[in-house]
Structure formats: C-alpha cells, structure tokens
Specification:
Layout (H helix, E strand, L loop, with lengths): L3 E2 L1 H17 L1 H7 L9 H16 L7 H15 L2 H17 L6 E2 H18 L8 H18 L3 H22 L1 H6 L4 H17 L31 E9 L7 H10 E8 L3 E8 L2 H8 L3 E10 H9 L7 H10 L11 E9 L2 H9 L4 E4 L8 H9 L3 E7 L6 H5 L8 E4 L5 H9 L7 H13 L1 E8 L4 E3 L2 E3 L4 E5 L2 E6 L2 H13 L5 E6 L5 H14 L4 E6 L7 E6 L2
Parallel strand pairs: 7-8, 7-9, 9-10, 16-17
Antiparallel strand pairs: 1-2, 3-5, 3-6, 4-5, 11-14, 11-18, 12-13, 14-15, 16-18
Helix pairs in contact: 1-3, 1-4, 1-10, 2-3, 2-10, 3-4, 3-5, 4-5, 5-6, 6-7, 6-8, 7-8, 7-10, 8-10, 18-19, 20-21
C-alpha cells in the first residue's frame, strides 16, 4: 500500500489520466446531454487535460507543489467548455492545497480534494446537482472519511474512486435531463475515468477502462431533444488577463447571469477564464474587457452541433478550424498584383470594417485596443492584397510599430500611414485617389489626419490617479486626442462636456461611431447633444460595433 507520493508520481498520474480521458473522449461525448445536448464534454475534458500533460512532460525532477501548480495553470488556460473549466477549477483548488509540499499522504489528498471542490462550487454561478460537481463533492467527502481510518495515499484515492463511481450512477436520478435520456452525467464520467487512471498508476497497474454500468445506456439518443430545448445557442469560452491581481469579478458574474447560463469563472493571480452559454457572445467579451485584456476566445453554435449529432454527423467545432489551419501550414503565396495600390486596415467592429471596405480597403485585420494584431497577422493581409503597393492603416498607436516591421518582410512595397485612431484612418482613406502618385497620396492622407480631432469614451478598468483625475473602476473615461479629458459615472455628462469643447472650434463634420454596448437609441441621443451644442456642424451617426469604446467621435474642420 503506497502511503505517500512525490512530484514525479503526481506527474505520472496526471499524464495517465489525460491518456485515459483521451482514449474514452468519444464515449463521454455520447453521454453529453446536459446542460445542452452538444456532444463535446469528452473532447473538452480531454483537451483541457492534454494542455497539462504537454506542460508536465517538460518537467524534470520537479517537486510536488511545482507539478500541481504547472498542471493547474496550464489547465486554466487550456480549459474548454463547461466541463473543462470546472475540471481546471478542481485542479486549481487541489494545487492551492498542495502548495509548498514535497510529498502528499492520504490525509493531505483528502484535504486537497475538498479544496478543489470548494473552488469549483465557488466559481460556478448556479451549481447544479447531478453533474461532475456532485461526483467530485461526494468522492471528496468519502475520501475525507476514509482518511480518518487509513491515512495512506493509495487507500484514500481508492475510496475517492469507489465513491465517485457510486455517485456517478446516481446522477441519472438527480437530473431530469439525464433521466429523460437514461444516461449518467458526462462530466462525472470523465472525473471517474481520471480517478481510476490515477489509482492504476499509483498501483503500478496497466490502465484499463471501467466497464459500463448496466443500468445506463452507453449513448444518448440526441433525436430525443429538440433545438428549442437550447435556450442559449452559443457556447462561449474566453481568457482575460487581469488588469490587477485582486480584481473583483462579482459584477461580471452578475452581468453574465442576465445574458446567459452555465456560467463558470476560473481564475488565478494573472488571468481569469469564463465559460457561458449566451445568445450574444460579443456582449460577454466586451463586458469582460472592463476587467483586463482579452487573450483568447472560442464560440460554438450548440444548436448546429445538436443538429449534426441528431443526423448522425460529427458535430461542428472550432477544432475543425484548427485542422484546416494545419492543412494550410505551408507558406501562403503572395497575391499577384492586379492594380497599383491596395489597402489594409486594422479595426474592431463589423460596422467599422464595413466603412473601411466601402472606402476601398482590400483586407481588414480584426484588432485594436487590447487586441493588437501581430506583425505576422499584418504581413499575411499585405501578401493577400493583389497590388504592387499596399497602404496599411494601423488605426492605433500601439500597432504602428508592428505594421512597420512588415516593410522588409514582403516583396510588395508597404507604405504605413501612421493613423493612431480609427477616425484618422477613415478621414485619410476618404482622401485616397488611386490615380495620383504615391507621394502625393501619402501627403494628402497625412494632411487629412491632421484635420481630425478624435474623441473616445471608454471605461476605467481599475482605480487610479492620472493627470489630476481621481479615477474609479467602472467609470466612463473621455479622451480628447491623446489626453484624458474627464471621468464620470454619467456618460451623458462627458458627452455634453466634449460637445461644449467642440462648440468654438469650427468643426464642420462630426461623426459618432457607436460601439457594441450602445443601442441606436442611445447613439441618437448622443448625436442630439452634439447637434444642440454645435448647431453649425453636420452630425452623423454610424454603427461601428466596436468593443472597448462606447463612442468614437470624429470632428473635422473643412
């Protein structure tokens, strides 16, 4: 009987667990009917574990605390779907309980399992019984009881596994959706596979799959469900790097609860990961950026996945996009020139992208504030433009340098127009004359940008004291040019102040591009403020759809 384990043993157990879940991921997928029948739980759990397995294989002679921390951190960033996020939370709680330890016995394992369960329940907005949460909680409770009788690691892990199997069998009676399909919970099944694999490795045994329970079907019948059962269509997962370590995510949880369900938020000191089912994924992404910088996102249509499964097809997934990318790994060719000049523009928001296309942009790169594209991203857009000379509009001061790096990386001639804002880029492109000489085009565009005053309204991600302004997290911020103009919890006060500043500056054209969080009605009300205070200016409203900025406002003098 193994009484304790060290870091190498834990590493081997987690790698073994990843291998077993990978082997049985399709079986787990076929059990997946809750919270929606999208058939991806096994894939999500497998990919989550595989991110940890990949990182763990790089370690050599690492102590227990290091192994646990590496696994937890990798899984947080690699977590996919509801089950994957919960799994990462379980490991995160376990990692915290094992912090600083070089060995772990049965009592410490029981405490760590309970720590994992507490972390998972705390993060899930509305915990539902009859899921992986239940299986993990019951197994942790029984593991703790077992530790009082026999404190060896192997005995406690064996008790946790046996209890998890029993708890899994009961999930079919705890959740009406599972009972309707006559299946056990898919996530719970994955957790059982994990514990079984870890126990087998602990004992030095060959890992084998557990026999199926006779009382439950091996596969759910997805034709039993209608897509109308799926209230929120988009499975949305994303990672945000925190603006500060001790940021309070409670307001984000509350907001997500108003636009969706199946909400899970996992976090460490540097980042947090969100899982939510919603019909407006872009709203979730935009709101989350108030708390930090968006790193990665995945959005999948669960209604289409359900229809695929019901028809006997493989469910569509973002994994298919990755497969397509692998098939296209060969260097992409450079588009042959069909004209002298071409245009590449960087912006975020469907409305802004449409504006640039209407003005002649050949390629749009999605990016901007908090979403800066790489030099490679810009280079690929340049090479895909069928022209001899490509004008690049970064439209953000933090992207200009990355754009300039492409000049020596392509056979095309690249001319970077140093637009620092989207309004500058639009004004410059309005002056583009494809029949003029290159130098004249550049000169005219730069002059046009000088005549543009850009105002922006965004939000404060953190408390700060800047340039004499006492700023509080969540307040609206107004920028005038590159300077902070003001901050206020009332956005209309900032709009009025900006309009008053423009009143005496002889602006003839004012364009208001409103963002993803602003309705058309709100945008028109903002336009009315500028119309009233700047009666000699022509005021226009455009749905930019941009994240981060509620309003981008352009003022031009003729």
């Amino acid at each position: 009987m193994r009484t304790k384990i060290d870091g190498q043993a834990l590493l081997e157990m987690l790698i073994g667990a990843a291998a077993v879940v990978e082997k049985h991921k399709q079986q787990i997928n076929e059990l997946n009917v809750f919270p929606v029948p999208d058939g991806d739980t096994g894939t999500n759990m497998s990919m989550t574990l595989n991110t940890a397995s990949t990182e763990l294989r790089k370690l050599k002679d690492a102590p227990l605390t290091k192994v646990a921390d590496v696994a937890a951190s990798a899984m947080l960033r690699g977590a996919r779907g509801n089950s994957g996020v919960i799994l990462s939370l379980l490991l995160r709680g376990i990692s915290k309980s094992l912090k600083g330890m070089e060995e772990c016995d049965g009592v410490q394992l029981a405490i760590a399992l309970q720590g994992g369960v507490e972390a998972a329940y705390k993060a899930v907005m509305k915990p539902t019984e009859g899921t992986i949460l239940t299986v993990a909680r019951v197994s942790a409770e029984d593991a703790f009881a077992s530790a009082e009788q026999d404190g060896s690691f192997e005995a406690v892990l064996a008790a946790a596994f046996a209890s998890a199997e029993e708890a899994l069998a009961q999930t079919i009676h705890q959740n009406p959706v599972l009972e309707k399909a006559s299946v056990v919970d898919a996530g719970g099944k994955g957790w059982v596979y994990m514990l079984e694999a870890m126990l087998a490795v602990c004992r030095g045994e060959k890992i084998e799959a557990a026999p199926a329970a006779a009382s439950a079907k091996e596969q759910a019948d997805f034709t039993d469900f209608d897509t109308e059962d799926i209230t929120f269509a988009y499975d949305t997962v994303f990672i945000v790097r925190k603006a500060k370590e001790d940021i309070d995510l409670t307001p984000l949880r509350r907001y997500l609860d108003t636009i969706g369900d199946s909400i899970v938020i996992g976090e460490d000191d540097e980042a947090f990961k969100v899982h939510v089912h919603t019909n407006i994924p872009w709203a979730a992404l935009t709101r989350a950026q108030k708390f930090g910088t968006l790193e990665l996102a995945k959005i999948e249509n669960m209604q289409m996945q359900h229809d695929d499964l019901a028809a006997g097809r493989k469910a569509r997934s973002t994994d298919d996009l990755e497969e397509d990318e692998e098939e296209e790994e060969a260097p992409k060719g450079v588009a042959a020139p069909e004209k002298k000049y071409g245009v590449v523009a960087v912006c975020a928001g469907a409305g802004l992208a449409d504006v640039f296309r209407e003005l002649g942009a050949d390629n749009i790169i999605e990016g901007g504030q908090t979403m800066n594209p790489s030099t490679q991203d810009i280079l690929e857009a340049i090479n895909a433009t069928p022209s001899e000379i490509v004008f690049v509009f970064p439209n953000n001061k933090n992207i200009i340098m990355a754009a300039e790096q492409t000049v020596r990386l392509t056979e095309k001639k690249v001319v970077v127009i140093p637009s620092k804002t989207v309004p500058q880029g639009i004004s410059a492109l309005l002056m583009f004359d494809p029949n003029a000489e290159e130098q004249d085009i550049v000169s005219t565009m730069k002059m046009a940008m000088q005549n543009v005053t850009t105002m922006q309204i965004t939000y404060a991600a953190r408390d700060s004291d800047f340039d004499g302004h006492d700023i509080h997290a969540g307040e609206y911020l107004a920028l005038y040019g590159s300077s902070l103009f003001g901050n206020d919890p009332d956005v209309n006060k900032l709009l009025c102040a900006l309009a008053d500043k423009l009143k005496d500056e002889d602006s003839e054209f004012i364009t208001i591009y409103y963002g993803a969080d602003i309705t058309e009605k709100q945008a028109n009300a903002a336009a009315a403020i500028f119309t009233e205070r700047c009666p000699h200016a022509e005021v226009s409203v455009v749905n930019g759809g941009q994240p981060v900025y509620y309003y981008l406002i352009s003022a031009e003098a003729q």
